[in-house]
Write a structure and sequence with these properties.
6-stranded antiparallel beta barrel, Elongation Factor Tu (Ef-tu), domain 3, mainly beta, 2 domains
Length: about 220
């Protein structure tokens, strides 16, 4: 698990195709690797990767065909910058929100505009993920824990403060760029629990289902 609070910006150092999947080397910059061991997880632009080698200035990870299909990792090139975060420990401050590192889909930057010293982004999620995104809720964008300002269908807006623009790759985001999106894990599990309790919903969460499962009061 992760918090979505980025600890360093790393750089892709090497990409080695391996029989349908990929071995990836990341230089980790200022990220402290002193307590990282082989087998530990490091979120790389929101994708949970396992360190299989630790050459000193970074780590190597194996990227499966499934991860290549579901994330933007396969689109990276040597020299591209990535957001890095080590896995949670029992004493890690939870400054963001709970992040699994299991990307739900690829989203796109629709627009960018300055707003004082901050930048406002309009993003577009895949239609299937839109129902998990709520105003003032949390999303994870390339590994960054962010608060949603507004929602309009599959589009959502983010306000990015100067610190986040500098300390993550968000400063590089321009319209047309794609990114790894992970929705709030609580929303996903709540939906599964609700639908699992009632198979007569045809996949829809509505007031009738909420009443029958005890999440809403009955009609007056």
């Amino acid at each position: 698990m992760f918090t979505g609070i980025i600890q360093a910006i790393g750089e892709v150092a090497a990409l080695q195709p391996k029989g349908g999947d990929l071995r990836l080397r990341i230089r980790t910059g200022k990220l402290d690797l002193s307590n990282v061991a082989i087998g530990d997880s490091i979120a790389t632009s929101g994708v949970c990767l396992t360190a299989v080698e630790l050459p000193g200035d970074g780590f190597w990870a194996d990227v499966s065909a499934e991860t290549l299909a579901c994330t933007g990792i396969g689109g990276l090139g040597v020299g591209d910058r990535v957001n890095l975060e080590k896995a949670l420990t029992p004493v890690t401050p939870l400054g963001g929100h709970l992040v699994s590192g299991h990307v739900d889909g690829i989203a796109e930057v629709v627009s960018r505009r300055d707003d004082g010293r901050s930048v406002r982004f309009r993003m577009r999620a895949p239609e299937a993920l839109a129902r998990y995104i709520a105003a003032k809720g949390s999303v994870c964008v390339d590994g960054i824990s962010l608060t949603v300002n507004a929602v309009d269908g599959a589009d959502f807006e983010l306000n990015i403060v100067p610190h986040t623009l500098v300390e993550t790759t968000m400063g590089e985001f321009q319209p047309g760029r794609t990114f790894n999106l992970e929705v709030d894990i609580i929303a996903r599990y709540l939906e599964r629990l609700l639908l699992g309790a009632d198979t007569a919903t045809d996949g829809a969460i509505n007031m009738d289902l909420l009443r029958r499962t005890g999440f809403a009061g009955g009609a007056d």
